Amino acid sequence: MLDAIANKDKTKLGGDDIIWPAINEDGSPCSKPIKKPRGLFVTDEPSEREDLESGGDDMRKYWDFIKAKYSSPSFDASMAQQISLLPKHWTVVTINVTDDKTALIVSRQRPDHPPVIFCLPLDRRGREGDDEEQFSYDDALEEFTSIIETSDRITHEGVNIEGNKKAIADWWSERTALDQRMRELLDNIEFCWLGVFKTALAVPNVHGPDTLSLLRSRLDKAFKRSGIGSDKASARPKLDKGLLDCFSSISPKCRDEELEDLAYFILDLYQLHGTSIALSDVDIDTLVVDIRNALEEHTLKTVPRPSQMEDHHMFLVLDKNAQRIPWESIPVLRGRSVSRIPSISFLVDRIQLARHRQGLPFVSPDSKSEIQQVDRISVDPKRVRYVLNPKGDLKHTEKQFGPWLKRMKKEAGWSGTIGTVPTEEEMARSLSRSDLFM
């Protein structure tokens, strides 16, 4: 990050990275401005660096602020509170796959809510006595790779079947079967890997003042009916607000296996609090029925009914192994507003930049005054670039969107390529000079 910030400094970097910097005879940097060469893909549009520096001292304040943040020699405790700077309707979920590919580490963070972290073994169905074959990380990746390769193949084959009714029917039949394979893969990822803990990815509910404490009480009673726990409150594990907030999204109509997940999770909490439990003596089927009854009672008797948070946005922070999985398409996230980001710090930095551009002061996690929230940025509708059908194998897609893009190019000044592969220079300039890249 510090190197990237240094590259924003004109005194340290002389212009475009594809232009040789000027130097004096002694080898020192030359401050004389360099004329940019005219070429096929070189335009007079300002680059991202020029955009950010066009404000002079104004933008320098932003980069100095970010530089000071990352130059700290030690970890500042306030860094752990960065989540408080996010808008209330944003949630950040981090998903990591352990090095041995046998477990997921899932955490959920929201402003003004305690974080929750789950360690989810991918083979936990075996621990719960399920004899079915386990769905491993390698199994999922192998199936996903096969689906992508098959999709690429039939997409290329579809170019040459126009007019052949039998070939078209066969093509659609194979396409439908491929869609079904993808649906089953995504269902398995959610059910086998996340189980009941998919609620960490659900839209948060807005609760009344006593809703979560009532849910805690009903779950405690469900376990007591199975002879688990003690009458002494001090000996019972207390589900904190973060966990209850997650579990409040569980549907009473969910599958038995998902409620088994919840049962084993709470049983582990009892054991961590010193309660000795022989799992082999626990009637899980009966406990699942009691938990389901508790959830049904909670759903029926909670007044006012919890409502889902409006305008909610989910941010996913994924490690290198989790990045390969299409999380955005699993059932619990399908159709939702979801973005991938490299880290929470990245997200906070973008908020600080948006605040700065709107003339608002920088904020820190320990700010005492009420912060004016910024949850969106402005996009210049004229700074749009696009790439359509670069391989030339999506003729129908090009036919549908091509005329519209050409019209927008003429009317709004958009630019891009249709039916051809963009060069590296075009891609670099599209990414650095556009507010929206499609």
From TrEMBL:
One Gene Ontology MF term: cysteine-type endopeptidase activity
Reactions listed under catalytic activity: All bonds known to be hydrolyzed by this endopeptidase have arginine in P1 and an acidic residue in P4. P6 is often occupied by an acidic residue or by a hydroxy-amino-acid residue, the phosphorylation of which enhances cleavage
InterPro entries: Peptidase_C50 (IPR005314), SEPARIN_core_dom (IPR030397)
Protein EC: 3.4.22.49
GO biological process terms on file: meiotic chromosome separation; proteolysis
GO cellular component assignments: cytoplasm; mitotic spindle; mitotic spindle pole body; nucleus
Signal peptide from the UniProt entry: none
UniProt keyword 4Fe-4S present: no
Domain Peptidase C50: 381-438
Keyword tags: Chromosome partition, Hydrolase
Keyword Hydrolase recorded: yes
Name of the featured protein: separase
Species whose genome carries this gene: Thanatephorus cucumeris (strain AG1-IB / isolate 7/3/14) (Lettuce bottom rot fungus)
